[in-house]
Amino acid sequence: MARLASVFFFFLLCFQVFAQKTSRDSYAVPSVAPVIPAAQTKSVDGIAHFINRHYKTPQEKVQAIYQWLAANVVYDVQALSLGPQYYERQALITQTLATRKALCQGYAEVFHALCAQTGIPSYLITGFVVPRSTSTPRSHAWCAAQLDGQWYLFDPTWGAGQLENGTFVSRINQRYYMVPPARMVQTHLPFDPLWQFLPQPLTYEEFLSSKATSPRPKRTFVFLDSLAAYAAASPKAQLAGTIRRMEAHKMIPAVALEQLNDLRKNQAVIQHNETVDLFNQAVTSFNHGIDQLNQFTRYKNQRFYPVKPETELRKMTTSCTAQFQEAKRLLQLVKSRNNTQLLLPLENLNSQVENALMQAKSQEMFVTRYLKTPLKQRPALFYKQALAEKE
User: Fold this and answer.
1) Cα-Cα-Cα-Cα dihedral of 338, 343, 346, 352, to 10°?
2) Closest to 188 (Cα-Cα) out of 208, 214, 171
3) Can you name the CATH fold of 24-191?
4) Tens digits of residue pLDDT in 164-217
5) Could you confirm whether the keyword Ion transport appears in this record (predicted)?
6) Of the candidates 107, 134, 135, 130, which has an alpha carbon nearest to the alpha carbon of residue 186?
7) Whole-model pTM?
């Protein structure tokens, strides 16, 4: 039976975000960005090696990452007109370092990757912002990093400069460096409330209406426990948790709904792949069982010659049965509704497994009867078994 396959593609949104204009006074005195040899800036490994060698503390390292990105990567204004793009994460990082241009996803991916290579706990966050020039929420990406046990937010995109009359002006902005969660949530709202790092996260509605409090007291969200649970969970469980928390909002704006629908699609792809994998595992077990059953049949046709020990002879049939039972167990786990193309193959394989199980059990019974029969009477059993199988 041909193996069924499924491919899961990463879908990374190309966030079209215009940095908020801020007054010149809001810019801190620019810090000096590290000067890294060009040969080392072609890869995350090269940049991280330089930073690890020249900076000692996590604070120094994360500052070097932020400043290098802000000083060396420019906002890709032309890419704004292209709309959402499909990217594989590593390909986007490679492209950002090669072209020194990026939208927010590229900035955030490189920042997150460099944190990982320099030993700084971090997360890449997706959410939305409301630029001053419009009331329409726009998707955006930024990062969180843990320093001295505390979580801070970093937006290397907005830290690199701003758009002025459709032109990107490079200017390192320290305002979006190491921002406390309570301040960052005033301008950046994650799709998943977990990444607000707050005991009482804002709802989508509160953020968009600029109301930081609700008429009724909110339940305290123990986000540190949730972060620990998230970190320990499988990617599938992490995705399910994100979807659950997003769906809990009473009002979901279009920008968040689009993201939620994409996550649901990813979840469906995972379920589809799991279904295909289970089916293929069942096929493998079935085929192993058939191979073993065929080996036993050939040996039986030779009237169990050359002679094998009793334990080995019994194992030849019990191993077949075990393989078919495993195939049956796996097929019971297959949810064909996740892949309607499996409906007919599933029905056919179930039938084949049941038939094979009956054959294996029959051969087990024959071996048991054979071993209980006196030596001189054993040859007649083969003749009787052959007649019984013809009938």
Assistant:
1) 170
2) 208
3) C8orf32 fold (3.10.620)
4) 777 888 888 899 999 999 999 999 999 999 999 999 999 999 999 875 555 556
5) no
6) 130
7) 0.79
